[in-house]
Design brief:
Strand content: 15-25%
CATH architecture: 3-Layer(aba) Sandwich
Number of strands: 11
InterPro entries: Class_I_gatase-like (IPR029062)
Protein name: GAL3A protein
Largest sheet: 7 strands, mixed
Number of domains: 1
Low-confidence stretches: none
Organism: Alca torda (Razorbill)
CATH superfamily: Class I glutamine amidotransferase (GATase) domain
Number of helices: 8
Structural class: alpha/beta
Order of helices and strands: EHEEEHEEHHHEHEHEEEH
Oligomer: single chain
Length: 225
């Protein structure tokens, strides 16, 4: 029987929700790995709504669960219904929705608060010694919830202009965590905490390299599960 993996989304769209390519890549690699997947999202209002054509805020109000249902093809549940004992692992794709809806990192940085249901989900999997996979900006969730853990968001310097958000690594270190520098096609495994991270779109890279990096994260999660 395949591993049972929960995937937690943060909306739909890079600027205010889950990054669509990252969510899709994770689901493709999970499918290839024979995993049984269920998708969840918090039933909350988005912090903001961004017009992705103009790149500017919109006056609309949208719900994270409703928007995430677009990516899940309607097959999704409220995050409050996620029970860690029913799964072998959990994965959080990235996108600014993680930093806006799942926590307040987009506004507060390292002083952010984490949504209570996201926090309890992470704590439940960690306490049960079940693996947690995170990509792009999502590793900041682990950095905030599990002081002392090891994660990667790529590089800690803007190497060749490919890592414009490299300062995130410094903020992670300020939280008492260890940032591990990795390339886009790699992931890092914190064996002690069973946390697997990869930088995805934190790096300006061709889509196939991001896809491959997420693949290494998923493979490592499934190995640990």
């Amino acid at each position: 029987m395949g591993k049972r993996v929960a995937v937690v989304l943060a909306g739909c769209g890079v600027f205010d929700g889950s990054e669509i390519h990252e969510a899709s890549a994770a689901l493709v690699h999970l499918s290839r790995g024979g995993a049984e997947v269920k998708i969840f999202a918090p039933n909350i209002e988005q912090r903001d709504v961004v017009n992705h054509l103009k790149g500017s805020p919109s006056e609309e109000k949208r719900n994270v669960l409703v928007e995430s249902a677009r990516l899940a093809r309607g097959n999704i549940q409220d995050l409050t219904e996620l029970k860690a004992d029913e799964f072998d692992a959990v994965i959080f794709p990235g996108g600014f929705g993680v930093a806006k809806n799942l926590c307040s990192w987009a506004v507060d940085g390292k002083n952010c608060t984490v949504n209570e249901h996201v926090n309890s989900t992470l704590q439940a999997f960690h306490s049960a010694k079940k693996p947690i996979g995170l990509c792009c900006i999502s590793p900041v969730l682990a950095a905030k919830v599990f002081p002392g853990c090891e994660v990667t968001v790529g590089q800690d310097k803007n190497v060749d202009g490919r890592f414009p958000d490299a300062e995130t690594a410094s903020a992670i270190a300020e939280l008492g965590c260890k940032h591990i520098c990795k390339n886009v096609n790699e992931s890092h495994v914190d064996k002690a905490n069973k946390i697997v991270t990869t930088c995805a779109f934190m790096c300006k890279a061709p889509l196939h390299e991001i896809f491959d990096g997420i693949g290494t994260m998923v493979q490592e999660v499934l190995k640990l599960a």
